[in-house]
Amino acid sequence: MTAISNMSPEDKMVHNAYRKLLRTIKTPLEDADRKLIRDAYELAVEAHRPQRRKSGEPYILHPLAVATICTEEIGLGPTAVAAALLHDVVEDTPVKLEDIRAKFGAQIAKMVDGLTKLDSAYNAESQQAENVLKVLSTLVEDVRVVLIKMADRLHNMRTLGAMTRQKQLKIAAETSYVYAPLAHRLGLYGLKTEFLDLCMKVTEPEAYHDIARNLADTKRDRNRYINEFIKPLTPHLDAIGVPYQVYGRPKSIYSIWNKIQSKRVPFEEIYDLFAVRIVMDVPLDRERLSCWQAYSIVTNVHKPLPERLKDWVTMPKSNGYESLHTTVIGPQGKFVEVQIRTNRMDEIAERGFAAHWKYKGVNNQKDVFEQWLDSVREILEDPGENAVEVLETFKDNNLFNEEIFVYTPKGELRILPKGATALDFAFSIHSDVGYHCTAVKVNNKLVPMGCVLKNGDQVKVITNKNQKPSEDWLKFVVTGKAKSKIRSAMKEERRKLGEYGREAFERKLRNLKLEPNEEIVEKLVRYFDLDSHVDFYYSIYMGAITIERIFKLFMPEGNTLVEIPKVGEEVRPPEPPPSKKRDLSKGRLMINGEDAERYSYSLATCCNPVQGDDIFAYVTSNATLKIHRTTCPNATNLMANYGYRIMKAEWVHTPGTTFVADLKITGIDDGPGVIERLSHAISSNLNINIRTFSIAGDQGYFEGRVSLVVQNTDQLSIAIRSLLKLPNVSTVERVV
Ligand code: MN
Fold first, then answer.
1. CATH of region 206-358
2. Which one, of 298, 356, 285, lies nearest residue 324 by Cα?
3. CB atoms < 10 A from the CB of 546, how many?
4. What torsion, rounded to 10 degrees, do the Cα atoms 377, 381, 385, 388 define?
């Protein structure tokens, strides 16, 4: 090695990056580990020497940065650091996987191989859904590989500037579709937040920079407010007698933007730009006690909102998150979220999965992660479904949703996604228990199979070996496991019964001196517009297609069947569907620049688009169009997986049309007259009709719902803004 003083400036930069990496490793390194990292670094430096990044800097700075993210932000150990340093070597340089194996052993070689494969999955322009499945399969094999991949992606996102706009958009789409939800699921909140912010910076650069600037401009006022909020708390927190920190934390740009979008209000009217966090340094056995002490201090000083307490200290989330959250009414009647946790909980919240190994056995965290990985494994093992379908069930149940905790009759804990039913529970125990489930008892009472379970329920499944799943069952379940098990059971059932149909059909062919063959079946499958051979045979078994009918339409010729020409039959186009007069009071639409009335379309009920909303049209599988809002929760998925089915849609401005929009209003109830003041503000001042209005108060706090008849989103925004100006109103939100 050259002495540092003789190094070129560039080599010095690389050397410093390496020193920085070593400094981020907090635990003392054993000699063997130190050598491992050194060897990996030296090999990577040599291999990447001729390469530069798009930005012009030496390529080796990238693997060094990725390795640093692995230690500093994810908390991975020496093996992963070595793999991170080597992650691009096999893909981009002449070094072979065998070389890595010879020098570093099978384990690191396997990790590097996994990382190389994940990269090529991405480059191959294949469908997003298939990429995700590849990531998930890697995940169940070695979580560290996916964590390193996330570090790689994070560094690429941070340094996107040098790429073409096209490439930036593509990487951002994949990041928000795959890596952000995965980071969330693995409890890496820091990474998830940064991913979403960086994606937004690419897709919505103006909005991003606007909010960033606004945040900077309002920083002083915000800090003043936070100090005012914290000040009365400190003497009481001091009295607990443990070291602690209390500070305000700004929310992410992405989450602020989301609020601006969904509430349709300007930045100035977003109230929760920050949360206050209390982090205490206490030994394990005092954690709960201290958290609840802090909670009672906060809520004694600032009035809490009823039902806004979230207790993930007693029962952590299944991604490992532990914290106590509450929302209180701070100075000037503003709502403030307060998060209470310990140092250990804070580390888990920031680093998620990796930190949980460090604290393994502290509580039930090992189980929750492992249970989740098991469920991922099970879904992946189920073949026969297409990637998009598998992914749907994932996104619905495994990546985002919150979970509920239920118990078996023996008191064993099971974790299911929120919304899971009694039948889902049966399938979660074992697929055979699901298949043969005849009745379910929840807390000792018989319930329907589709009964939605609640936290703490005790569930008992009654089985009967003669029971079999039916198509209907799909309506009673929400979990991916249950859905795919029912589907494959149905498929199997159709296949079995179809065998009878096949026998009957082949017997008839042989009677006609025809040897059954592929071509014949293919022809008939196409003629009857079926999906598969199985469907054809099953239709025969069910009598939906009779053998008699087949041979009225077809006759043998050579060793195949040909259509019998129809004599004197008039060919008529199919009847157009009875034209229903559309209710145009909801506004007119243009689809791909043409009047939408030429198409058969309807407004999606998942997001209820109204005139003025940004919208798009989606071609459904039965060739009709559904109009969604671009902010619809289903939109990202539709766009990522079915981009070719998306059509442009826009509103044609038509005066006199009206629609109904629902608002949720909360605030401080200081006595009678609240409703009167609110409805006066709406109907008299703004001249907007109110369709319904309901309000409920509780301990000085009210929550109301109002349905307004408005003409467009502009009018709605004006209404929201003027409601927010009323002295007692805290929040106004449009309800989708
Ligand atoms: Mn890389």
1. 3.30.460.10
2. 298
3. 12
4. 30
Given the residues 11, 39, 92, 311, the one annotated as active site:
92
Q: What is the mean pLDDT of residues 308-337?
A: 86
Joined tokens for residue 681: 């503000």
Burial class (CB in 10 A: 0-12, 13-18, 19+), 651: buried
Specify the DSSP element, H or E, that contains 690: strand 689-698
Helix (H/G/I), strand (E/B), else coil: 388: helix
H or E element in which residue 245 lies: strand 244-250
219 within 8 A of 211, measured Cβ to Cβ:
no
Cα–Cα nearest to 552, from 531, 524, 573, 575? 524
For residues 85 and 108, what is the distance between their CA atoms, to the nearest angstrom? 11
Q: Which of 11, 33, 91, 392 is catalytic?
A: 91
Tell me how far the alpha carbon of residue 36 is from its chain's centroid: 37
CA of 126 to the centre of ligand 1 (A): 19
Q: Where are the domains of the chain?
A: 4-205, 206-358, 488-563, 584-652, 659-735
CATH 1.10.3210.10 correct for 4-205: yes
Token pair recorded at residue 638: 């539709």
Q: What is the pLDDT of residues 72-83, one digit of tens each?
A: 888 888 999 999
Token pair recorded at residue 485: 């098990």
Ligand 1 (ion): residues with CB under 5 Å are 88, 152
In sequence order, the 6+-apart residues with CB closer than 8 A to the CB of 633 are 606, 607
Q: Using CA atoms of 700, 701, 705, 708 in order, give the dihedral in degrees to the nearest 10.
A: 80
Q: Are strands 729-735 and 701-710 parallel, antiparallel or unpaired?
A: unpaired
* Separation CA 574–CA 733 (nearest Å): 47
Write the pLDDT tens digit of every residue in 441-482: 988 888 888 899 987 788 999 998 888 888 889 888 988 888
CATH of domain 659-735: 3.30.70.260
The enclosing H or E element of 89 equals helix 89-92
What SS3 state is found at 617? strand
Distance in Å, CA 41 to ligand 1 centroid: 15
Q: Give the pLDDT confidence of 43-64 residue by residue, as tens digits.
A: 999 999 888 988 888 999 999 9
Contact in structure between 158 and 55 (CB atoms under 8 Å) = no
With contact defined as beta carbons under 8 Å apart, do 628 and 634 qualify?
yes
Query: What is the phi/psi pair of residue 33, to 5°?
Result: -65, -40
CA of 167 to the centre of ligand 1 (A): 15
Q: Is 595 a catalytic residue?
A: no
The owner of tokens 């929009």 is 661
Q: Clarify whether 91 is annotated catalytic.
A: yes
Three-state secondary structure call for residue 72: helix
Q: pLDDT digits over 672-696, tens only? A: 677 777 777 777 777 777 777 777 7
